[in-house]
Amino acid sequence: MNTPDTRIEIQTLGSFNISADGKPIASTWPDKAAKVLFCSLFSPLAINFTWDRICRSLLGVSESLASRQRLEKNSIVPLSSFLIEEFGFNPLITSHEGIRIDFQRIHVDAFEFHTSALEGLNFLSRGNRDAAFEKLRRAKSLYNGSYLPGITSKIITNTRFGLESLYRTAVINAMPLTGTSCSSGRNRRKEPALQRKPVRKTVRTLNYGHENASYDVLENCQKAANNWLMTS
Length: 232
Description:
The chain is of the alpha+beta class. The protein contains 7 helices and 7 strands; from the N terminus they run βββαβααβββαααα. The chain has helices spanning 32-40, 51-58, 65-87, 109-125, 129-142, 154-174, 215-231; strands spanning 8-11, 17-20, 23-25, 49-50, 92-94, 98-101, 106-108. The strands form 2 sheets. It has a 4-stranded mixed β-sheet with strand order 3-2-1-7. Strands 4-6-5 form a 3-stranded antiparallel β-sheet. It starts with 7 loop residues before the first strand and ends with a helix.
């Protein structure tokens, strides 16, 4: 259906939309199970998913021959057919160990947010405030709200709160430390509503106007991001 050069864009932050060359696609899914499986596979907190993790997240049971066959029949086969029809190719890659998505022709906003936020924290911890500001500003512009709102699985829920934690750490806590004005009052964007569930890792309240609240605080910000990333 699509040409080999077609680029698939997937919006996950604030809403869920898929487009190819700027045109909306994938508006009607085979069923809810196929949609949830696909969405579970593009979490930026993990690239490879074992069969046991997928079975536990989607079916609520551990991996077994029966659960694998059930997943294959009810979700993977119809999802693969659907993706070929809508995308023009099947990005699913399966192996003996698990399943993943080939992102060579797919761009996901959550991945760019995740990368920009962590790179911004790294620049900030090394004292490169200008580069940090640019990365964190990009992360802020991408975070339009909760990850995949209205779509639920264990993997998606964990990712939702993990990315919110990163948003708090990178944008709310660390971005003011760059010492650069985030935006003018006239153009300032309204902050997205955040979940009320406490995040696992936070940093202490800071006096952002104090020049000396530097490396120690920045290191705490970076450690907070790394800690939730490793434990998600």
